[in-house]
Amino acid sequence: MINGVMWLLGCQLVGELVVRLLGIPVPGPVVGMVLLFALLQLRRPPEGASVLRTSDALLRHLQLFFIPAGVGVVTFLAVIRDDALPILVAMVVSWVAGLAVVGWLVLLLRPRRSRGRTEAG
Q1: CA-CA distances (angstroms) from residue 32 to 11, 17, 35, 112?
Q2: Which pLDDT belongs to residue 101?
């Protein structure tokens, strides 16, 4: 399990370093997750099983990772109350934009053969 944690933290560290060195506007853990995915797909290290066991153990306790976010909401409740309308508009607009992008990607990536059947049939 320690080996799996080291792989996860190592990929996160490399992701943070890449983001800070290149100045890209993406969170470091996201870059680290993409790196971990690429490593597990390309190399299939023997430690891959320990990474999976470790990630399964962390996922069992996923609700604990939401506690800091909940504390932040309670801490900034007055700010959220004062700016409720702009926050709500931003959430709705981002939700609609995300939904549109996902729909567009599904149409774009769907195989040509299945498109012909659904349009003709």
Answers
A1: 5, 9, 5, 34
A2: 96
- CA 89/CA 2 separation, integer angstroms: 44
Coil/strand/helix, residue 88: helix
Which one-letter DSSP state was computed for residue 43? T
Place of tokens 């053969």: 113
CB atoms within 10 A of CB 12: 19
Global pTM reads 0.55
pLDDT at 118: 56
* Sign, CA torsion 1/48/24/87: negative
pLDDT band at 64 (very low <50, low <70, confident <90, very high): confident
For residues 53-70, average pLDDT: 86
Q: Which residue has the tokens 């800091």?
A: 68
> No. of H helices and E strands in the chain?
7, 0
Joined together, the tokens standing for residue 31 give: 């870059």
Side chain identity, residue 55? S
Residues 6+ apart with CB under 8 A from 12: 28, 29, 32, 33
